[in-house]
Amino acid sequence: MGHAPLAIGWRALHQDVEPGRGFTDVQECGPMRRWVHRHQYRASGDRTVVGDSIWLEHPVGARGLLTRILFSRPALAVLFRYRAFATKRAIRRRRRAGSGEAVGTHGRAA
User: Which of 48, 56, 75, 97 has the fewest CB atoms nearer than 10 Å to its CB?
Assistant: First the structure.
């Protein structure tokens, strides 16, 4: 995840996979002491709304200070806003190309 010099090694396991409804990423190896990220999807008319719930614990020491900066509430908000933008852009490109189904963005209908 990320680009050098801030590349962060991260391995997550997908759990609780519910096709069309969501899944959970659980960090197996990475920067956090604990990271659980639930992705949820729900229909809203002819669109899909995507939501996220995150449970995390920071490590102690210098590493914990770094994760508190990189994974602060404002930093995560920026990350998810970018994801929403990128998802909408990908949907528009697929629609122009005549393929793909609509998917949603964080907390908003696509």
Answer: 97
12 Cβ contact partners less than 8 Å away, ≥ 6 residues apart: 25, 26, 27, 28, 30, 35, 37
Domain assignment present for residue 110? The answer is: no
Q: How many domains does the chain have?
A: 1
What residue type is 11 in one-letter code? R
Q: What is the pLDDT of residues 27-64, one digit of tens each?
A: 999 999 999 999 998 989 988 888 999 999 999 999 99
Structure tokens at 29: 């190896």
Containing structural domain, residue 84: 11-97
pLDDT for 21-35, tens place per residue? Answer: 999 999 999 999 999
